[in-house]
Amino acid sequence: MSSNDTPSHWHELADRVLDGQGLTPEEGLAILRSADFELLDLLAAAYRVRRRWFGDQVHLNFLMNAKSGTCSEDCGYCSQSSVSRADIPRYNLLEPDKILDGARIAHQRKARTYCVVLSGRRPSDSELDTITQVVGQIRSAYALKVCISPGLLTREQAMRLKQCGVSRVNHNLNTSRRFYPRICTTHSYQDRLDTLGVVREVGLEICSGGIVGLGEEDEDVVELALRLGQLAVDVVPVNFLMPIAGTPLADTHRLNPRYCLKVLALVRLANPRCELRIAGGREMHLGSLQPLGLYPANGIFIGDYLTTEGQPAEEDYRMIEALGFEIIVEGAE
Questions:
Q1: pTM of this prediction?
Q2: Does the active-site annotation cover 274?
Q3: Pick from 234, 322, 298, 323: which is nearest to 47 by CA?
Q4: 12, 225, 235, 293 — which has fewest CB within 10 A?
Q5: CA dist 306 to 96, 166, 245, 252, Å?
Q6: Is 260 one of the catalytic residues?
């Protein structure tokens, strides 16, 4: 292939993003529908945007499933939902010492952020009591950001999290407003937006992303990426659906690694300043192309996910080293 055959429009798009211009829906669709032979050029353009704000840094995140199953919501993708028949561990909120021990593991694995997830529609008062108690202990013992994923929140609950030392709250939009009723009926897309609103209102950082591969259209992925940009969220975790036996979406298999990389490029160009994190499904759907994902993204989870396993941490360390990238821990910048 001659140099004249190499597409340059992705770099022109990156130039506009670097100059402060937003992505249009048409440009977003063009990214997802681009030819595979353009993929490396698209990733190079996304990497230029990533490098402007994050250099070659990689942020590692460790996740603790602190309360598993027993959820009243009917999210079709989730093994912990009320409609799931998946064979998973089911338990109430862990004791504070076990949550604190998870922070120790996060610290040992070079994580910058410790993510504590609670299944359920919203946290109870007693669960918030436990969380507020243990977050102070975590912050005293380790140099970690603490992110809580509690479900729906009121302003008062969000304020409690802020006051105890939580850095950010995770609450994913998951998909577009149009498609949302197809994956959940027990709460609405607006309910999720309202929670993000109170999180922002009390001064907490927002971690919000989505799941790709639910059966949505390209337009839904673009709408999600642009909506997160409009909300100026701080962290965007991108999940790729892992079909789990026993869930309504167990037979949904639509993704390939090239499309997943295009999604990451789209989200980076639509959210140039965010910490873009490759989340669940990274190992399954990117496979041997995982290193390429870190050209648009600057964060990954180290270890397991909610009810599924990740790859050994040593493999992630080797991948990051091979790329010539640098793991950044809290307080190192």
A1: 0.94
A2: no
A3: 298
A4: 12
A5: 18, 20, 15, 19
A6: no
